Structure prediction request, 233 residues.
Amino acid sequence: MEKILLIDDDVELCSMLTDYLGRYGFSVSAIHRGDTGLHAAQEQTWDLILLDVMLPGMDGLEVLKRIRTTSRVNVLLLTARGEDVDRIVGLEIGADDYLPKPFNPRELLARMRAILRRSAAPAASDTSDLLEVDNLELDPRSRTVLEGGKPIELTDVEFSLLEALMRAAGQVVSREQLSEAVLGRKFDPFDRSLDMHVSRLRRKLGEHDGQVKTVRGTGYQLAVRRSHSTAKG
Prediction:
């Protein structure tokens, strides 16, 4: 049974989601304050955290920022405000995805399953060869990335994004393909999630940040500097 931490001050919503998700095999623990939610996130192991932005005790974005200093746990951000700023900042800090309120519980379930499938991919993948592009090495089995032999800490969505680009090194991968492969849903031109994840990945790649190129109106390309990507079994 997968363990879900729900941090939201809407008690009625938490009760409804606990019952609803429980019917699909999830064990949900609900906490209604940001500061106590952060403590629970850091002290226990979770498969996924559902985190509201507007919380008493500590803002949800601050909770996420502190979680990301020590953990790559999956985080789905729940946003109630109409402005895009919370969603953009949340993705920049390291949220795996976001869902605006009010939402349909079935949509939440679909987003959760997509995130959990992505993080569980190594066990099910039959394409677990080591990938190498220039000075980058990516191991799908251990979900680790090395740049010049030094590890790069990536969230699950950033890892999956880089893997998709490395497998097609030198080729343009469309936004539609990446949205399906990485986010587990059809591409929405009004959804900034994919672009924000690419931006965050670029920053983490350091000297390789210029390799992830935007192909206007189409998608993204991992440029190859020295040689084509290789896969080692």
In short: The mean pLDDT is 88. The two ends are 32 Å apart (CA to CA). The chain has two domains: 2-119, 122-232.
